[in-house]
């Protein structure tokens, strides 16, 4: 079973940047599709970005051009570089490892963007 631990969240001003990390243990992530989701206060969890095992990426329209997802299989870690942050990016950010019927989630990290 894969365990995921997010880190790198915090308080940042509008226009600032943060880099989130998602460290995996208990299994290698190289064969998993890896996703980032976020859950704003009082709202549902939404897709942010994904990187497939072959390196292909996809993004939600709301973050295209501002966020970059990447993976370092050697370090067994997923990243999310977030630039030009907006107040509406405030949320708890979760990473997920997915392969077939297997789904593993982290506990989340809070990102707060203040104006």
Commentary on this structure:
With 115 residues, the protein is an all-beta fold. 0% of the residues lie in helices and 56% in strands. It has strands spanning 3-7, 10-13, 18-25, 33-39, 46-51, 57-59, 67-72, 77-82, 91-99, 102-105, 109-114. The strands form two sheets. Strands 2, 4, 5, 6, 9, 10 and 11 form a seven-stranded mixed beta sheet that branches. The protein starts with a strand and ends with a strand. The mean pLDDT is 97.
Brief overview:
The protein is mainly beta and 115 residues long.
Tell me the layout of helices and strands.
Layout: E1 3-7, E2 10-13, E3 18-25, E4 33-39, E5 46-51, E6 57-59, E7 67-72, E8 77-82, E9 91-99, E10 102-105, E11 109-114
Parallel strand pairs: 2-11
Antiparallel strand pairs: 1-3, 3-8, 4-5, 4-9, 5-6, 7-8, 9-10, 9-11
């Amino acid at each position: 079973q894969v365990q995921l631990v997010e880190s790198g969240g915090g308080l940042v001003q509008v226009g600032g940047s943060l880099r989130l990390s998602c460290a995996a243990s208990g299994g290698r992530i190289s064969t998993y599709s890896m996703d980032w989701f976020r859950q704003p206060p009082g709202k549902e969890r939404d897709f942010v970005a994904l990187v497939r095992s072959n390196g292909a990426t996809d993004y939600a329209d709301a973050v295209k051009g501002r966020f970059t997802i990447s993976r370092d299989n050697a370090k067994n870690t997923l990243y999310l570089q977030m630039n030009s942050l907006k107040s509406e990016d405030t949320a708890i950010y979760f990473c997920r490892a997915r392969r077939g019927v297997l789904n593993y989630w982290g506990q989340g990290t809070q990102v707060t963007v203040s104006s």
